[in-house]
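hey team, just a heads up i'm posting the complex here instead of the shared drive bc the drive is being weird again. everything in one block, sequence lines first with there labels, then the predicted structure for the whole assembly after. its four chains so it's a bit long, scroll down
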Amino acid sequence: MEKKDHKDCLAALVPVRDTLDVIGGKWRILILISISSGNKNFRKIERSIPKLSTKVLSSELKIMEQDHLITRTVINGFPVRTEYTATEYSKTLKNVIAELHDWGINHRKKVFECSE
Amino acid sequence: MEKKDHKDCLAALVPVRDTLDVIGGKWRILILISISSGNKNFRKIERSIPKLSTKVLSSELKIMEQDHLITRTVINGFPVRTEYTATEYSKTLKNVIAELHDWGINHRKKVFECSE
DNA sequence: CGGTATCCATAGGGATACTG
DNA sequence: CAGTATCCCTATGGATACCG
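-- predicted structure starts here --
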């Protein structure tokens, strides 16, 4: 947040935007938490998150797989099952999520305290 | 990222979503950085950020003011000037932005290295 | 179960023009 | 300069139905 010239600003911004592109969507963190909590299959994840439609879940899962946040495994059998798991890589988001979480807590306090 | 039951998950998620609602938009961090860098008036901010339209800037600035991230000051004179400044409060986002930034850097590396 | 396909409504964003 | 207002268009998301 120090003074910087414009080029530095843009340079500083790109990685932040990259991260937000990965986790900033409306559903991604919710889905990640759901999966990390043990919901491994499509319907369970869907049901665990209010207002989340199959279409959106489907597309978000694909993106998250591309981003190496989750793994999709098809298990042959009767019936065929599909399992989603959080990758080790997704755990590198721990600090990020912790900061987002803490700031959110404080912000909520702030908003309630001073409504000026 | 540990195992949690569903209620805990949702509870953990709310503050994260709160934070993302504040800074997760497409433009807000860009605008905040621009202002923090010394761009104080509307046109300067607008010009400093490629692809940002007046309409969007206008609405984002209002929201950011409500969220106490920036301050808007009208300075009477000829012509009337308006000054936007980053609040002290916005500086509490320092750690959040640092984490987002660092993760973004690493993620970009990861994406380049293993394109599997 | 694990999705895809389709239809449709709505919001958000670009371009432009205009006000004070 | 500092925005608002308008028009218009596209992308996103909900609802529903359907396939393997």
